[in-house]
Design brief:
It is a single chain. By secondary structure, this protein is an alpha/beta fold. Helix content is 44%, strand content 19%. It contains five helices and five strands, in the order E-H-E-H-E-H-E-H-E-H. The chain has a five-stranded parallel beta sheet, sandwiched between helices. Helix 2 runs parallel beside helix 3.
Length: 120
Amino acid sequence: MTIKKILVVDDSPTERHVMKALLTSSGYEVITAESGEEGIAKAKSELPDLILMDVVMPGLNGYQATRTLTRDEATRNIPVIVCTTKGQETDKIWGLRQGAHDYLVKPVNGPELLAKIAAL
């Protein structure tokens, strides 16, 4: 599966900017969303090849949004990589149990993220 279009879901304008800069400089098309709800809506309308999901957001958190996306017929085949400050082993296990493909702890290491995307 070739990754071309990536949806970044994060409530932090700084995180969205940093991720978008990293990904666009590597040749990816990047769409952003500021909340779990907006992320789900954009995932359904844009059908990205990959979703990078923050966890700690107001309203629908990243775990809930990931669970919704991975259980929906329209979006279940889109891999989700959780990118969050929540670094406990139990957080990671919970994220993967919601259907996430992978789990990275912020601050995200750019080369590590790009390697994980290339490996999909």
